[in-house]
Specification:
206 residues, alpha+beta, 4-stranded mixed beta sheet, 5 helices, 4 strands
Length: 206
């Protein structure tokens, strides 16, 4: 009796029950096995933000290539956005840690650090907003005081102008009136003198 050929057991990673398996094909297409649909990197970003557990496998070998796909996403995000998250100095320090005696401590340290940041993000946001609000209030208070000072200066200037200019104008008017009266008096004197001279001449002719 011929022996039946035994099927070779295929190597397959065992993941938690809720983990979504994404297959990556040689043409760089990604296939979501849970929805039976092809997806793109943007969809993976959505899964990350929704805190959905997933792994990316090489469709041919079954190898877990999630890390390389995440690296690709980070590279594209850092290249596309002006508000990058990995400063140049951080990248240099990170590169310098490869092969370092203490390099093996970096992954755990970074994981704990970012985990702490994420867990405290609400408190950090509140503290940040408080600082912004305090600064805003301070700026508003400063602006209010500045406006009051400017208003005071303006009112003082206005009082000086309204008090001095009309007075000066009034004085000038008075001076002009006095001058006019003086001129009129002089003219009357001249006329009177001419009349007196004319009368004297008429008297001499009689």
């Amino acid at each position: 009796m011929p022996k039946l050929k035994e099927k070779k057991a295929t190597k397959r990673n065992i993941y938690p029950e809720d983990t979504i398996v994404i297959k990556k094909y040689p043409n760089r297409r990604l296939y979501n096995t849970s929805t039976s649909a092809y997806i793109v990197l943007k969809d993976l970003i959505g899964l990350v933000k929704e805190d959905v557990e997933f792994v990316v496998e090489d469709a041919k070998t079954g190898e877990d290539i999630t890390r390389s796909i995440m690296n690709q996403i980070i590279f594209e995000q850092e290249s596309q956005h002006k508000d990058f998250l990995l400063p140049l100095e951080f990248q240099k320090q990170l590169i310098s840690m490869y092969g370092d005696a203490y390099g093996h401590l970096v992954p755990d340290y970074l994981t704990q650090s970012i985990g702490l940041f994420v867990s405290e993000r609400a408190q950090i946001a509140k503290a940040y907003n408080d600082v912004i609000n305090r600064n805003t209030d301070a700026m508003m208070e400063y602006g209010k005081k500045l406006a009051e000072q400017n208003t005071k200066i303006f009112m003082n200037s206005w009082d000086m102008m309204s008090g001095s200019i009309p007075k000066a104008s009034s004085d000038k008017k008075k001076e002009k009136l006095v001058s006019n009266k003086h001129d009129e008096a002089n003219e009357l004197d001249d006329i009177q003198q001419k009349i007196d001279a004319l009368q004297s001449r008429l008297q001499s002719l009689k």
